[in-house]
Amino acid sequence: MKDRTMKEFIGEVFGTFILILLGDGVVANVGLAPRLAGNAYNWNTITIGWAFAVIIAVYVSGGVSGAHLNPAVTLGLAVKRGFPWKKVLPYIAAQMIGAFLGAFAVYLIYRDGLVAAGMPNVWSTGPGAVFQESFFQAQQGASTGGYSMVTAIIAEFFGTMVLIWGIAASGDAKNMGLKNNMGAFLVGFTVLAVGLSLGGPSGYSINPARDLGPRLFGALVGTKGLFDGLYWLIPPVLIPAIAGPIGFYLYDLFISKQLPEG
User: What residues have CB less than 8 Å from 85, skipping those under 6 apart?
Assistant: First the structure.
């Protein structure tokens, strides 16, 4: 049993590492790559990059740990799907470690550009999901206005629930029944949909480990302002953790109970 738990722990570390390596990697690439210059900021590129990060991470680690890769998912599965509570903290610890290490790898790859730009925040989410002028060394033109913490909370709540609904559907044999291990694509496309449709106000953390692990790393390497105020704790961390179990509850209430038996 202990051996199985360790294998699952390693699977979650490795899967979350891949998630952040590719997810924060696309943010750094779009923002910093010299060949792209300042006008290359493209929200679509970032959302597509994150979607494929999820797909690859799930395919790599799913057979070992189930590829939770997200404390909101782990908590939701414990509350509504019988996942053992004794595994919840090890899974969350593994996700945090993997996210931290993924951010470290992004730092190694993009260090030259990050240093030249003053170590901007490519690590974590924030209000409006826009970058500072120094990020692109160009005039800031991507902002559509600021968003309050309340708005970011609402966006994270609904975004996380949509993620959970996609995950619940992907594994629901009584529903439309995904075949040939295609569930990872539904989850990835769900993340894409959340980013494109709901990601603006908060940057769509929808995953406490995805946000907090890289945020801790970013603070260590000198990115400023990552822990100013309480924003870092509430929309990207606490709200997804609360919304995860609620998402599974609502899926069961509105979908599972309506599906035909047998």
Answer: 78
For residues 18 and 147, give the distance between their C-alpha atoms in angstroms, rounded to a whole number. Answer: 30
Burial readout 63-81 (b: 16 or more C-beta within 10 A, e: otherwise): ebbbbbbbbbbbbbbbbbe
Pick the CATH number of 2-137+146-258 from 2.60.120.10, 3.40.50.150, 3.30.420.10, 1.20.1080.10: 1.20.1080.10
Determine the straight-line distance between the first and last CA of the chain, rounded to whole angstroms: 33
- Rounded Cα distance between 212 and 219, Å, is 10
- pTM to 2 decimal places: 0.93
Q: What angle do CA 207, 208, 211 make, to 5 degrees?
A: 90
pLDDT at 137 over 80: no
106-to-20, 49, 111, 113, 224 alpha-carbon distances in Å: 8, 14, 8, 11, 17
Question: Would you tell me the crossing angle of helices 239-254 and 149-170 to the nearest 10 degrees?
Answer: 50
d(CA 63, CA 28): 29
Residue-wise pLDDT for 212-237, tens only, equals 999 999 999 999 989 989 999 999 99
The stretches of 33-148 forming alpha helices (DSSP H) are 43-65, 71-80, 88-116, 133-136
- Rounded Cα gap, residues 90 and 83, in angstroms: 12
